[in-house]
From TrEMBL:
Lineage: superkingdom: Eukaryota
Gene Ontology molecular-function annotations: zinc ion transmembrane transporter activity
Keyword tags: Membrane, Transmembrane, Transmembrane helix
Record protein name field: Uncharacterized protein
Keyword Membrane included in the entry's annotation: yes
One GO CC term on file: membrane
Compartments, record wording: Membrane
Organism from which the protein derives: Halteria grandinella
Length: 156
């Protein structure tokens, strides 16, 4: 708590926003339609989980102002398109720039997942094994999709 205010939802919002800008930049820099579609599907599914997590965090910390909640989610909805615009502007950059942006996007995703979402989910002992099962199932699905995509891209 800072000055009597729990900053956990704010930190989560900043982390999701920071991650979203780099996701958007990565999307905007993508010039391959197939890769763009795969990234877009992953981003859309990820944002469902991220916004639910943010909503739960706001509820747990009793943020009751409808105006504040609206502004938080409205602002968050603008960050990704802004990143896409930046990415389009950077699309003619050298390949190492794309590598750096993709690394930052992936790194922020892993950081948020590990430090902000998973930690809080596993603090609650209820349904711990079910949560772990779905964590492993999700990880396996992402790995399988990556494997299938890499096999598909090498066959062309």
């Amino acid at each position: 708590m800072v000055c009597g205010v729990n900053v956990t939802p704010l930190i989560l919002l900043l982390a999701i926003g920071f991650h979203s800008i780099f996701e958007g930049i990565a999307l905007g820099m993508t010039d391959n339609e197939g890769i763009f579609i795969n990234l877009m599907i992953g981003v859309a599914l990820h944002h469902i989980a991220a916004t639910i997590s943010l909503g739960v965090s706001l509820g747990q910390h009793q943020v009751n102002s409808k105006k504040a909640i609206f502004l938080i989610f409205f602002g968050l909805s603008l960050i990704e398109p802004a990143g896409i615009g930046i990415g389009i502007g950077l699309s003619d950059s050298p390949e190492f720039v794309e590598s750096i942006v993709m690394s930052l996007a992936g790194g922020t995703f892993v950081y948020i997942a590990c430090s902000e979402i998973l930690v809080h989910e596993f603090e609650d002992k209820q349904h711990r094994y079910l949560k772990f099962f779905f964590f492993i199932l999700g990880s396996a699905a992402i790995t399988l999709l990556w494997f299938l995509n890499s096999q598909h891209s090498h066959s062309h």
